């Protein structure tokens, strides 16, 4: 019984086969039969410290935004504040693909700038004005119209994602942020 918990395939193990590229050119250059299995590629650690960092001689990354994985960022030229998501390149590409699918959505914030530096992608978004969880926690909602407005925004964002083929998992009120101060 304990073996099944440790092995997600039960008592049977799947074998991984080495896939070899097709051979081209003279046989002495093709040594696929002696190929070693690929080694896992180490993913570099992303610095999640609250120390300010200068990115691309334009943005200063500041502290983390409360309750999120985003960091505050300041454009040193325009003095405008942004939210920045720091991701490794592979995850960043997936996030950007989702944003490109959702370009026409009025409920999903679009990146304002994308900077690739080394193995990291810095995706800058307009500054948000708090999340729905904090808003509901801080403001006692007594008005049905106000509750409808919030629910309409949540349902609109989820519907836009689903119509673009994006399935949202782990939905929480903290993941929905307001794009402007009017909420």
TrEMBL record:
One of its GO terms (cellular component) is nucleus. One of its GO terms (biological process) is positive regulation of proteasomal ubiquitin-dependent protein catabolic process. It comes from the Eukaryota. Residues 1-48 are annotated as: Disordered. This is Protein kinase domain-containing protein. It comes from Artemia franciscana (Brine shrimp). GO terms for molecular function: mitogen-activated protein kinase kinase binding.
């Amino acid at each position: 019984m304990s073996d099944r918990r440790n092995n997600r395939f039960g008592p049977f193990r799947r074998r991984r086969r080495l896939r070899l590229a097709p051979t081209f050119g003279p046989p002495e250059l093709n040594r696929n039969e002696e190929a070693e299995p690929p080694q896992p590629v180490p993913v570099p650690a992303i610095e999640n410290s609250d120390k300010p960092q200068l990115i691309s001689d334009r943005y200063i990354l500041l502290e983390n935004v409360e309750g999120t994985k985003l960091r505050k960022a300041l454009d040193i030229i325009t003095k405008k504040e942004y939210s920045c998501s720091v991701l490794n390149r592979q995850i960043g590409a997936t996030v950007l693909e989702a944003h490109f699918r959702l370009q026409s959505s009025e409920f999903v914030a679009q990146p304002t700038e994308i900077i690739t530096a080394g193995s990291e992608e810095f995706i800058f978004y307009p500054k948000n004005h708090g999340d729905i969880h904090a808003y509901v926690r801080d403001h006692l909602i007594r008005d049905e119209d106000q509750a409808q407005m919030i629910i309409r925004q949540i349902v609109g964002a989820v519907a836009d994602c689903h119509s673009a083929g994006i399935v949202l998992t782990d939905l929480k009120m903290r993941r929905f942020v307001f794009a402007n101060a009017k909420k």
